[in-house]
Write a structure and sequence with these properties.
Structural class: alpha/beta
Radius of gyration: 19 Å
Number of strands: 11
CATH class: Alpha Beta
CATH topology: Rossmann fold
CATH superfamily: NAD(P)-binding Rossmann-like Domain
Oligomer: single chain
Helix content: 40-55%
Strand order of the largest sheet: 2-1-3-4-5-10
Distance between the termini: 34 Å
Number of helices: 11
Shape: globular
Order of helices and strands: EHEHEHEHEEEHEEHEEHHHHH
Low-confidence stretches: none
Length: 293
């Protein structure tokens, strides 16, 4: 039986991955600060879990859905750097380390772009706190070569699925009549169905010739206005009130988050996955919403 390790595997993505891996007959072990899992403080337990594993997927890190004050900024970065560093130390202590290590990252590493899409080959790294988080996280992950472990950084777009994640707040906006465009509506939304994200992990696990950075995003990003229009249509809502920039900034302050999570243009294309021949099951937004809803 193949053994899979999910670090930080109790969130939206990790819970889905655990279920799907178990359905396929994998043994799944989870490293988490929650009870009934391997603790981040149990170094020996982590080493034993990693020993002989086929794959580890690291999803650990404090949510960025919060206000970017000094305390939260420090926790967001530390939670990613510290866990990545600990996993590497434990792998070096293994006699038979995992064959593949996939570390989560984000497409927000690229600049706010409305002029052209970004790919792994020609994407321009942006500026600002969210970019710093992604850059430092990837730097920590990739700065040491592990001779017996293939390393892959997953630059993940907005993940859409039934039971949480980014879809929930968008659905609630439409549900309560606020499903119009946000800001000017021109900012791009790069997205991916959670099942396709899982299939990408399986694809990269099998392809022993592939390593490095991979953008995990549908090949068909849309504008914010198109995204909300498609969601309204899927939910049977004809109209939705728009939200201006100042409304979003006020609302973000009141619910203790940041407006850039909605206003930043995330425009990326999965160049390396396309070249490698990966085929998306949910390449269009309409079929994705139909499946989720």
């Amino acid at each position: 039986m193949k053994k899979i390790i999910l670090a930080g595997g109790t969130g939206f993505i990790g819970t889905y991955f655990e279920q799907r891996f178990r359905e396929l007959g994998y043994q799944v072990l989870i490293i988490s600060r929650q009870e009934n899992h391997i603790s981040w403080d149990d170094k020996e337990g982590i080493i034993n879990a990693l020993e002989g594993a086929d794959l580890i997927v690291n999803l650990a890190g404090k949510s960025i859905n919060c206000r970017y004050n000094d305390k939260n900024k420090q926790e967001i970065i530390h939670s990613r750097i510290a866990t990545t560093k600990k996993l590497r130390e434990c792998m070096l202590a293994c006699n038979h380390p995992p064959n593949v290590w996939m570390n989560s990252s984000t497409v927000t590493i690229y600049r706010d772009a409305e002029d052209r899409p970004m790919t792994e080959a020609d994407g321009e790294i942006g500026t600002g706190f969210s970019v710093d988080v992604a850059s430092k996280w990837e730097e920590e992950f990739l700065k040491f070569d592990l001779p017996n472990t293939r390393q892959i950084a997953l630059r993940i777009a907005i993940v859409l699925g039934k039971d949480g994640g980014a879809f929930t707040p968008y659905r609630n906006l439409v549900k309560f009549g606020l499903g119009g465009k946000q800001g000017n509506g021109k900012q791009k939304i790069s997205w991916i169905h959670i099942e396709d994200l899982f299939r990408i992990v399986l694809f990269l696990l099998d392809r022993k010739d592939l390593k490095g950075v991979f953008i995990c995003s549908s090949p068909n990003p849309v504008s914010n206005e198109e995204f909300m229009m498609s969601l309204r249509k899927s939910m049977g809502k004809r109209l939705g009130l728009p939200a201006t920039k100042w409304m979003l900034e006020l609302g973000a302050f009141l619910i203790r988050t940041e407006s850039e999570l909605v206003l930043k243009s995330r425009w990326v294309l999965p160049g390396k996955l396309n070249q490698a021949g990966f085929e998306f099951s949910y390449s269009e937004l309409e079929s994705t919403f139909q499946d989720i809803i």
